[in-house]
Amino acid sequence: MTDVKILDKLYSHIMKVIVATGVAPHYTEIASELQMSVEAARESLNDLMGPGKMAGYWLVPGTDTIGSFAPFNNVPTHYRITVEGESKWWGQ
Length: 92
What we know:
The protein has 92 residues and is an alpha+beta fold. The chain has 3 helices and 5 strands; from the N terminus they run αααβββββ.
C-alpha cells in the first residue's frame, strides 16, 4: 500500500492537472512530475482509485487510465463544464 503522503500528493497533482488542462494525466506523466518510477506511479494510482477504492473515482476498465475523477470525467459526457467562458471539462 502506498504511503498516505504520496497518495495525498497524487490526488492534488491529478486535480491540478485536470483543472489546468481539462484532461487527467497518464501515470507516466504523473511519474515524471512526482519524480517516481513509472511502475510506482501506476501502483500508487491503483492504490488511490482502483476497484473498490473511492466512489466517483475510477479507472477505465481493464486499464490504468483515469476515467473519472470527481467531479470531472476524463471521458466525454453530456455534462460540459464551462467556467468564465472556457469549456474544457466534462462532468460526471
